[in-house]
Specification:
Distance between the termini: 13 Å
Strand order of the largest sheet: 2-3-1-4
Mean pLDDT: 98
Strand content: 15-25%
Helix content: 40-55%
Structural class: alpha+beta
Shape: globular
Oligomer: single chain
Bound molecules: guanosine-5'-diphosphate
Low-confidence stretches: none
C-alpha cells in the first residue's frame, strides 16, 4: 500500500469539478484517506513549490495556487503514486492523453487542474506538509 498527495488546484475548484475529480480516484482503486478544502497562503505555496523557486514560472505558479481555494487529499492504494500520475495526464493538458483529468478538466500548463506527488520521498514530505497523522485513515 502506498500513499500520495493530490491537490485539486484553484481552476478545477472554481469550475465545480471537485466531485468529478475525486470520483476518478475512487473509481480507479484509490481510496481517499484524507481530504480538505483550504485557501493556501503565499508562504504555503512558496514552501510547497520551493523545488521550483529558480524556475521562470515560479511567481506565476505561486500566484495561481493562491488565486482561490484548493482541495488537498491523501490517496491510498497499490502503486498510488504512479496510478495518480497516470490518471492526471501530462503536465501540459495539450499533451495529456484522452480520458485523463488534465485532458478533461484543464485549460493550459498554468492552470492544469491537479497536482500529484512524483516520488515516494516527495509524497511523504507533501503529506506531512498538509496533514497530521490523526487526520489520515
Ligand atoms: P507536475 O508534476 O506534472 O505538476 O509538473 P512539474 O512538477 O514539472 O511542475 C509543477 C507545476 O508547475 C505544474 O503542474 C504547472 O502548474 C507549473 N508549470 C510547469 N511548467 C510550467 C511552465 O513552463 N509554465 C508555467 N506557467 N507553469 C509551469
Amino acid at each position: 500500500m502506498e500513499q500520495t498527495l493530490s491537490i485539486i488546484k484553484p481552476d478545477a475548484v472554481a469550475k465545480g469539478v471537485i466531485g468529478k475529480i475525486l470520483d476518478r480516484f475512487e473509481s480507479n482503486g484509490l481510496k481517499i484517506a484524507a481530504t480538505k478544502k483550504m485557501q493556501l497562503s503565499r508562504k504555503d505555496a512558496e514552501t510547497f513549490y520551493a523545488i521550483h523557486a529558480e524556475r521562470p514560472f515560479f511567481n506565476d505558479l505561486v500566484d495561481f495556487m493562491i488565486s482561490g481555494p484548493v482541495v488537498v487529499s491523501v490517496l491510498e492504494g497499490e502503486n498510488a503514486i504512479a496510478k495518480n500520475r497516470e490518471l492526471m495526464g501530462a503536465t501540459n493538458p495539450k499533451e495529456a492523453a484522452a480520458g485523463t483529468i488534465r485532458a478533461d478538466f484543464a485549460e493550459n500548463i498554468d492552470a492544469n487542474a491537479v497536482h500529484g506527488s512524483d516520488s515516494a520521498e516527495n509524497a511523504a514530505i507533501e503529506i506531512s506538509f498538509f496533514f497530521a497523522d490523526r487526520e489520515i485513515s
